Every structure is written in C-alpha cells, then in structure tokens.
C-alpha cells in the first residue's frame, strides 16, 4: 500500500487591510531572551572581576585568590615557538579538528601517560578545555537525559546541563571523604537516562584526587549499571599538578574503560597558558570526533594554528617537565603555608588537597561567629535566594578586607544550601598569600565590621 503524501491547505491570501486571524498572531513573550538562555549559569570567578577593578581603581591592593590561573609566565621555549610560527605565516584558517601536528602529539602523549592506544583521528582540539563541556552535553543529551557531575565542581558542568534541557544529577562530595568518592556513591545516581558521567581528578574546587581502588570501584559500577551509550567525561585539566608524590590516574587506563571515556585536558594549567586557549579531547571513536569537528566548524571554525604549534612543543619538549616541576614546588610551599595558616584562624577548617591549586576550607564556624548565617536568614527573599552565608563572607572579605575568594554556590548550586565553604586559589605569590592570611585572620574576628557591612547593603555577588 502506498501512503499518500499529506498536503497542507494553501493559506488563504488576506484581503488588503483585513486583520489577520487571531491564531496566526505570534504569542508575545515577556523576555527578549529565550527561556534556555535564562537557564545558563556562569563562572563567578570571572564575574567578580569588575568588583576587584573598582577596588583597585580606588588604589587598594586586592589579594587575588579567586582565579584558577597559574601566576607563572609562559615558558620561553613555548613562547618562542608561537612567535616563530607567526613569523612563518601560520596565521590563517586551519583544520577545524586541530592541526595534525598537535593531534599527533596529543595522541602520543595521552597514549604514553595512560597506557592506552590513541589515534590522531580521535583527537579534537578546542579553544581551551572549557568548550567541550557544553559541546558534549549538546552532542550526547536529549531533553530529559541525565548528566552526573561532581558538586562542588567546576560550575560549567551544572550550568550547561539545564541549558541543553538535560537533568542535572549532582554527586555531592563530602569533606569527610576528602571530597573524593567511590562507586558506592555514584551507583544511586545512575539511571537508564544517564548519558554523561563527569569525573574531575585532580579536582576544582577541592583539589581532591582519587585512589586506584576508588577509581576501580567507579569503573565497576559504570560497567554494570550505566547504559551502553553513557559516556564518561574525564576532565583531567589538572593532571600535572599533584603533590606528595601523587601520580595522575585516569579512568581510561582501567580495562574496558577507554572505549567509553572522553579524556579532556589542555595547556591552561600545566603550562600556565590560560590565554593560549588550547584544549583537547580524545573521543572513544573517530565518528564521535567527527561530530565534534562539525560543532567546531559551526561555532568557531578553528583554533589559531600558531598556538597549536606552541601546544605541540609544550607537550613534546623535554624542557616542559622542568617548568611543571618548578611550578608544583611553588604550589606545594604555598599550600602548606596556607593550610597551616587557615587552620590557625578560629572558624576555618582546611584539609590538605592532593592536587590542583585550590584550598576549600570549611567556614561554618566563621559564618556562625560573625553572624553570617543569621544575616542571610534576615535577607529579603529575593536576595536570600541568590546568596548564601558563604556568599556574604566572600563579599565581606572582598569589600572590607580586599581578599578575593569564591563562595560554595559558585561550584554547583543544586543542594548547596547549608554548606559553608570558600575556595581559595593559591595561584598567587607567597607574600600576597601571607597578607591575605593576615587579613582573613582579622576579618574572622570582626563581627561588628560584618554587621556594618551588611547594613551598607553591598553583599550582592
Ligand atoms: C575543572 C576545569 N575544567 C576545565 C577548565 C577550563 O580550562 P580552559 O581554561 O582550558 O578552558 C577549568 C578552568 O578553570 C577547570 O577548572
């Protein structure tokens, strides 16, 4: 039997001057922007920049513990290569998947460090390690599908989930478990709608790392419980920043896991090159890489080829290991100073991170001591919903003491009520960190100052 094609009746031409039928009138919308756009979150580390500038314009010195950006110069051997490539004229459009030289270097490096096979056709280069987070959610999730991500975690994980219409399934990390987790914690969150499971070790904002046993139990639960199409998104951007002899472990190295894991990294942290905007992902298959290549074409065409050549040198030059080691040594000294210093301030409790360059102290005691919990409870409902006691402390430290930090809500809002933490980046020189510590010590005892600050009404983030 043949099916007759359905033909819609041709719309009748309206008579000149006649009023169009009601049904054809576009429904007015309250907002200029789409509902989806209003669901998109942000990264507050960038948003408080203007506040810092206001303070600096007044001649005040701000201790910047807010940004996740190493404070070291780009190593000379990488900078020289970028300049050389510009002089050679590598300044035009290039392969949207990433230039072959960099994809080959990524494939070799990722394969060697993780003990797996990687081919360059599975590598895609992005403008940093951030874009593949949202692109992966667009590529793998239909509305109603679920994304599991760590909370506290990098804010873009949660931000994009709602934007693409997926269901956020935060995996709440506990201080008692050093903000790490195992398969037992993950299992209850997995469902038949799970499409992406995000892992991030070493982690932002807590600096947590994972043990081999924990990783094996996570892999085991995923193998047995997750749908076959679910992808593990392993954000390994801090893979080189480890302390106390910790070695980087990737879930992709475990048996059977490489074929379902997207491994993501880049130059921003390891090579102190946040402005280079070069990141990459290794996909389980070349077909998946092609989908992301096409997303690149749609969004930004390609990434500057001269920076990609610099990234290739970063990965392959023997000089890079020395730069990374010196940076980690400096971070270790700062971490030890700051952890000891914070723990000596009443109201702070800070554990030692195993990697990355952040501290994530519990400030429940501080919130109570200076009255931040009560002050938050007394806020007008609209302000209360956009804030938390740790947000008030963050703003107090910034405006009154010129120490820039990040509140707990900045790292995943869902389920963050009642959790009082701050993130402090130690990517700031030792002398500044000492000044910051002293300012926080005084602030922690300044209940009156906090009450006055609240009366001024400058607590909005
Ligand atoms: C966990 C995590 N993933 C990704 C990124 C993004 O890195 P990039 O600057 O390379 O885009 C960051 C940056 O802070 C991060 O902390």
In round numbers, the mean pLDDT is 93
Level of helix content?
40-55%
User: How many strand units?
Assistant: 12
Quick one: biggest sheet? 7 strands, mixed
What is the correct CATH architecture of the largest domain?
3-Layer(aba) Sandwich
Total number of distinct structural domains: 2
Structure description:
Helix content is 41%, strand content 11%. It is built from 18 helices and twelve strands. It is an alpha/beta fold and 461 residues long. Mean pLDDT is 93; it is low at 1-21. The strands form three sheets. The chain has a seven-stranded mixed sheet with strand order 2-8-7-6-5-3-4, sandwiched between helices. Strands 9-12-11 form a three-stranded antiparallel sheet, with helices on one face. It has a two-stranded parallel ribbon with strand order 1-10. α12 (319-343) runs parallel beside α17 (430-444). β5, α9 and β6 form a beta-alpha-beta unit. The protein has helices at 35-39, 44-47, 49-57, 76-87, 100-114, 131-140, 155-163, 183-186, 212-225, 286-299, 305-316, 319-343, 364-370, 372-377, 381-385, 389-401, 430-444, 447-456, and strands at residues 63-64, 123-126, 146-151, 167-172, 194-199, 231-235, 261-266, 279-282, 358-359, 403-404, 406-407, 422-425. The chain has two domains: 37-64 and 321-456, Aspartate Aminotransferase, domain 1 (Alpha-Beta Complex), CATH 3.90.1150.10; 91-319, Type I PLP-dependent aspartate aminotransferase-like (Major domain) (Aspartate Aminotransferase, domain 2).
């Amino acid at each position: 039997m043949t099916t007759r094609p359905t033909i819609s009746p041709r719309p009748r031409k309206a008579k000149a001057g006649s009023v169009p039928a009601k049904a054809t009138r576009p429904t007015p919308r309250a907002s200029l922007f789409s509902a989806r756009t209003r669901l998109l979150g942000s990264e507050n580390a960038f948003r408080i920049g203007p506040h810092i500038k206001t303070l600096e314009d007044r001649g005040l010195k701000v201790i910047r513990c807010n940004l996740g950006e190493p404070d070291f110069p780009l190593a000379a051997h990488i900078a020289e290569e970028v300049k050389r490539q510009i002089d050679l004229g590598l300044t035009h459009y290039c392969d949207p998947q990433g230039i072959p030289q960099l994809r080959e270097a990524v494939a070799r490096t990722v394969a060697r460090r993780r003990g797996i096979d990687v081919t360059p056709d599975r590598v895609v280069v992005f403008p940093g390690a951030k874009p593949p987070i949202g692109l992966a959610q667009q590529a793998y999730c239909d509305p109603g599908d679920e994304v599991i991500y760590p909370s506290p975690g990098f804010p873009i994980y949660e931000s994009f989930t709602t934007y693409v219409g997926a269901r956020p399934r935060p995996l709440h990390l506990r201080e008692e478990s050093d903000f790490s987790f195992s398969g037992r914690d993950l299992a209850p969150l997995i469902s038949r709608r799970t499409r992406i499971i995000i892992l991030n070790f070493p982690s932002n904002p807590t600096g947590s790392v994972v043990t081999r046993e924990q990783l094996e139990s996570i892999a085991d639960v995923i193998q047995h419980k997750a749908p076959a199409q679910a992808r593990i998104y392993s954000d390994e951007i801090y893979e080189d920043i480890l302390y106390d002899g910790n070695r980087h472990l990737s879930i992709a190295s475990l048996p059977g896991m490489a074929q379902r894991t997207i491994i993501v990294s880049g130059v921003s942290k390891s090579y102190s090159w946040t402005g280079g905007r070069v990141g990459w992902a290794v996909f389980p298959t070349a077909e998946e890489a092609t989908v992301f290549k096409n997303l690149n074409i749609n969004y930004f065409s390609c990434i500057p080829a001269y920076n990609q050549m610099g990234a290739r040198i970063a990965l392959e030059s023997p000089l890079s290991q020395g730069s990374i080691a010196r940076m980690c040594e400096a971070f270790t000294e700062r971490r030890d100073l700051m952890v000891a210093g914070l723990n000596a301030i009443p109201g702070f409790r800070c554990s030692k991170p195993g990697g990355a360059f952040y501290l994530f102290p519990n400030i429940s005691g501080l919130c109570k001591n200076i009255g931040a919990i009560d002050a938050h409870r007394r806020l007008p409902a609209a302000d209360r919903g956009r804030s938390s006691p740790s947000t008030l402390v963050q703003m107090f430290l910034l405006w009154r003491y010129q120490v820039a930090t990040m509140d707990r809500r900045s790292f995943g809002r869902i389920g963050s009520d009642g959790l009082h933490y701050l993130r402090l980046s130690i990517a700031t020189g030792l002398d500044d960190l000492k000044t910051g510590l002293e300012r926080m010590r005084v602030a922690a005892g300044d209940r009156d100052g906090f009450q006055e600050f609240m009366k001024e009404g400058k607590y909005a983030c």
